[in-house]
Write a structure and sequence with these properties.
10-stranded mixed beta sheet; 3 domains; D-Maltodextrin-Binding Protein, domain 2; globular
């Protein structure tokens, strides 16, 4: 359709300038303009090399005017698949569905969540990386995706090379807690205690190479302390041993830890961010506690296969930003211990790249590997 419109205008432009197609007489101009633009091009103007060259230039000029808006309106014309690389009920699955359940109202098509878990999210990511870049297969990517790029040595995809950023859903900073027997009530006291007893304090994680593990390693690097890593298979067993006093420190989401802080079973030290979280506005940040630049969070984003049409990315980003600005989503994110992020595709890409760079340094320093 855009091509026909462009050819029609190009033909009219030539006629207005007095150009006469070699296959008709000057008196046949009106008849010419009622024919299909494609037929006019094939039957008439191409018979004259000079006129064909001029017409081609005009088509390009007019095509640029009409093609982009028409294409933008066409996406999406069918259901869109959003791959979540973790099981149903996981944090990223919950966050993703908050958005996919509302996208049809803004974009006119269904957004279907497809859970493809495995290898810390790499199975689903690889599937999307190899999908057609047409905007109909997207990936909901979490912070673990940035860590995996350096943690796994033999990945078949690259988070920057093989994907185009679309938007950020939300992010929630980690909270550092201690068990109540640790004789430190703030970050300064905790670091002093760790320096006085190198290797004596332990920190829990949800597994080697997980975000809590590497956040603990980053604390060791930036504070210059020695801590003993104790990996667990998930948050519940780690929290159980924290409450029981069998491990000293733990970084995890506010949703996982705040209930235990409020009941006095765990002690909150600081939020791993540079600004206070809406989920826990009374808790100090690492920056406020004397360690600016120490930031670690769980975040969720939407990305697409590399070379996905720009119009599709722009429309998706706009719709996600509108959803993120609703009071309903803001309140729900606060319950999840997170904040919405109004990032453009470019800002999303820059953020993911910075996360990859940050965690690569920590992975190398810690010697962590998952292969």
């Amino acid at each position: 359709m855009a091509t026909d419109v462009a050819l029609g205008f190009a033909c009219r432009e030539l006629l207005n300038k007095g150009a006469t197609p070699p296959c008709i007489s000057p008196t046949s101009e009106e008849t010419l303009c009622t024919l299909s633009p494609v037929l006019r091009l094939v039957q008439c103007f191409l018979r004259s090399p000079t006129l064909a060259s001029v017409l081609l230039g005009a088509v390009v000029a007019f095509g640029g005017i009409f093609a982009s808006p028409l294409q933008a309106q066409q996406y999406p014309t069918r259901a869109v698949r959003v791959v979540v690389p973790f099981p149903p009920g996981s944090g990223i699955d919950t966050i993703t569905r908050l958005y996919t359940n509302r996208l049809p109202e803004l974009m006119g098509q269904q957004f279907i969540v497809d859970n493809r878990s495995g290898a810390a999210g790499n199975v689903g990511a690889e599937l999307v990386a190899r999908s057609a870049p047409d905007g109909y297969t997207l990936l909901s990517a979490a912070s673990s995706a940035a860590i995996s790029q350096s943690l796994y040595k033999n990945l078949s995809f690259d988070l920057i090379r093989d994907f185009d950023p679309v938007a950020m859903f939300a992010a929630g900073p980690f909270l550092l807690v201690t068990n109540v027997t640790v004789p430190a009530t703030n970050l300064k006291e905790l670091i002093a205690l760790a320096k006085a007893s190198p290797g004596k304090l332990t920190f829990a994680s949800t597994g080697t190479g997980s975000s809590p593990h590497l956040t603990g390693e980053m604390l060791k690097m930036q504070a210059g302390v020695s801590l003993l890593h104790v990996p667990y298979k998930g948050v519940p067993p780690a929290v159980a041993d924290m409450v029981g006093g069998r491990v000293d420190l733990f970084f995890a989401s506010t949703v996982s830890l705040l209930p235990h802080v409020k009941t006095g079973k765990l002690r909150a030290i600081a939020m791993a961010s540079d600004k206070r979280s809406a989920a826990a506005p009374d808790l100090p940040t690492f920056a406020e506690a004397g360690m600016p630049g120490f930031e670690s969070s769980t975040w969720w984003s939407l990305i697409a296969p590399s070379k996905t049409p720009r119009d599709a990315i722009v429309r998706l980003n706009s719709a996600i930003l509108k959803i993120a600005q609703t009071q309903e989503i803001r309140e729900r994110m606060a319950v999840e211990g997170s904040d919405t992020l109004a990032y453009s595709p470019e800002q999303t890409g820059a953020f993911i790249k910075s996360e990859m760079t940050k965690w690569a340094k920590v992975v190398v320093a810690s010697g962590a590997t998952a292969d």
